[in-house]
Amino acid sequence: MTTKFLRFVLGLLLATVSVPAVAANACYTPEQMQAEQLLRLHSELMVVTVTCHESSRGQDLGAAYGDFTKRNIRVLHDAEQTMIGYYKAHKKGDPTEHLDRLRTILANEYGQKSADMSPPVFCTDYRDEVVKMETATPADVENEVQRMVIAERSFAPLCHGGPVLAKNKYK
Questions:
Q1: Tens digits of per-residue pLDDT, 127-153?
Q2: What are the Cα distances from residue 129, in Å, to 14, 29, 44, 56, 72?
Q3: With the CA atoms of 147, 148, 150 and 153 taken in that order, what torsion angle do they form, in degrees rounded to the nearest 10?
Q4: Which residues pair with 60 in a beta bridge?
Q5: The pTM is what?
Q6: Contact 151/48 with Cβ under 8 angstroms?
Q7: 158 — phi, psi (to 5°)?
């Protein structure tokens, strides 16, 4: 896949998908915040995989991403169900469509980062993250998600300024 083609596809997706509007009273519980960030992590790993193809040591990122997904399928599914529950409570329309839109937006955001940096520079900086996460323990995944909850932005604020960290869901 050429860089121009990847940029075209990402640009097309950005142009056709709108950011989900957040209702004035909609906010995330700690579990919903973690769910969004886990889906963000998964989307970021997918973008790195599609953009870079192999690690700095020549390891196939497609296989590494697939292994990460298989090892974490239960928590990824739980995160999707958590977000579907959020969309049922706070959005009109099909909650699965909202989830699909979220996944697309998350991937597009990270794809834009690749385009802004240039794929070679992006890959130099990020390609080994897929390999690192492929063998991550449940505790490692949880720690990365917690770091993202604190450091990254989300599409809804945390409700009532409550605790950012939810109970451990990754064991």
A1: 999 999 999 999 999 999 999 998 878
A2: 24, 28, 10, 10, 16
A3: 170
A4: 54
A5: 0.80
A6: no
A7: -75, 135
Structure tokens at 56: 């700095």
Q: How far, in Å, CA of 107 to CA of 120, rounded?
A: 18
The interaxial angle of helices 73-90 and 95-117, nearest 10 deg, is: 120
Sole residue written with tokens 């955001």: 109
- The token pair that represents 134 in the structure block: 């492929």
Average pLDDT over residues 47-54: 97
With both helix axes pointing from N to C terminus, report the angle between 30-52 and 138-151 in degrees, rounded to the nearest 10: 100
Distances (CA, A) of 8 to 11, 108, 116, 171: 5, 11, 13, 40
Give the total residue count for the chain.
171
- Dihedral of CA atoms 31, 126, 152, 91 in degrees, nearest 10, equals -60
Question: Could you tell me which of 107, 87, 91 has the C-alpha nearest to residue 99?
Answer: 87
Rounded CA-CA distance 141/121 in Å is: 25
Distance, in Å, from the CA atom of 80 to the CA atom of 60, rounded to the nearest integer, reads 27
